[in-house]
Design a protein that fits this description.
By secondary structure, this protein is an alpha+beta fold. Helices cover about 25% and strands about 30% of the residues. The chain is elongated and about 80 Å long. Keywords: ATP-binding, Nucleotide-binding, Transport.
Length: about 350
């Protein structure tokens, strides 16, 4: 991670307040495979922070090191300013929610939620009150007597979340918790999870792991993009999408077009490209290229056009679907078109190493 990216990670904590989570120089290897190499990370108190990346990029390893399930080969982990690198999980003020709900089938929903409190020796009355409060928070307040088998997948995921929240940890770690849900339910849960985090932000910091870019952009205050055991960029969802640091970030977070412009490699997102007739005039300060439409994909609200340029390169453009004719080309397969874009909408990027 560059010095600029590291600064972006550290400056989020309020002045004088220790980060909720801080990783310094973390290294972890499994035999000859290096999962993390000198990784630095800082998460502010109350933040919804997402670690985003493909499989094998190191994001889950980082979460396991924070949780205490793994011990790093080098570096340290701090929680609220305390070095917890060698502490076992039960001595860390964190809880983890996994993709596998791991609910006890013989227990009621309320019993599952209260189980951790029972292990800690919390009295029965307080356990019941706190479990009921946690279930209300995840909108399952009237289902406490049911068994997990009587719930839908989304409801079981909420029970797992309530079970973690009932312990009131300083940091809640979420390891791809929505991965087993269908698309519509996953999208609904994204909004609900963000609403819960917003309500609890004064008490709990959320650290979320996913390979789903939509999840990361929808829910996060900030995102760290992982690749091959290192962090490529840390920033807000808008910064990550609009100003990717390099070609890897640009290609992993959304679709991107890499174009040579004024001797530099720049990224232009598909929605920034305008589709015009091949002989159309363009503004004096605009950039443009002519090619042939090779693929047309209808996506409901938008249509995606894959255009092969005369120089052999391929660009992808999106056009909003509406009934208002704009005088432009139909964009049919095989039609010659001109793609235009503004230089201000092109973001210079580093090449992948």
């Amino acid at each position: 991670m560059t010095g600029t990216q590291q600064a972006a990670g550290d400056d989020t904590a309020e002045e004088g307040a220790a980060p909720a989570v801080r990783a310094v120089g973390l290294r972890k290897a499994y035999g000859d495979v290096v999962a993390l190499e000198r990784l630095d990370l800082s998460v502010a108190p109350g933040e919804f922070f997402t670690m985003l990346g493909p499989s094998g990029s190191g994001k889950t390893t980082t979460l396991r090191l924070i949780a205490g399930f793994e011990v790093p080969d080098g570096g340290r982990v701090e929680l609220a300013g305390e070095d917890v690198t060698r502490r076992p999980p039960y001595q860390r003020d964190v809880n983890t929610v996994f993709q596998d709900y791991a609910l006890f089938p013989h227990m009621s929903v309320a019993g599952n939620v209260a189980y951790g409190l029972m292990v800690k020796g919390v009295g029965r009355r307080e356990r019941a009150e706190r479990a009921a409060e946690a279930l209300r928070l995840v909108q399952l307040g009237d289902l406490g007597r049911r068994k997990p088998i009587q719930l839908s997948g989304g409801q079981r995921q909420r029970v797992a979340l309530a079970r973690a929240l009932v312990n009131r940890p300083r940091v809640l770690l979420l390891d791809e918790p929505l991965g087993a849900l269908d698309l519509k339910l996953r999208q609904e849960m994204q909004l609900e999870l963000k609403a819960i985090q917003r309500e609890l932000s004064e008490r709990i910091t959320f650290v979320y792991v996913t390979h789903d870019q939509e999840e990361a952009l929808t829910m996060s205050d900030r995102v760290a993009v992982f690749s091959q055991g290192r962090i490529e960029q840390v920033g807000t969802p808008r910064e990550i999408y609009e100003r990717p640091a390099n070609e890897f970030v640009a290609s992993f977070v959304g679709t991107s077009n890499v174009i040579e412009q004024d001797g530099r490699r720049v990224v232009v997102r598909p929605e920034k490209l305008r589709l015009l007739a091949a002989d159309a005039d363009v503004a004096a300060d605009a950039r443009s290229a002519v090619g042939v439409v090779r693929e047309v994909v209808y996506l409901g609200s938008v249509t995606r056009y894959v255009v092969e340029l005369d120089d052999g390169a391929t660009l992808v453009a999106l056009r909003q679907n509406d009934d208002a004719p704009d005088g432009g080309p139909r964009g049919a397969r095989g039609e010659r078109v001109r793609l235009t874009w503004s230089p201000s909408q092109a973001n210079a990027v580093e090449e992948e190493s």
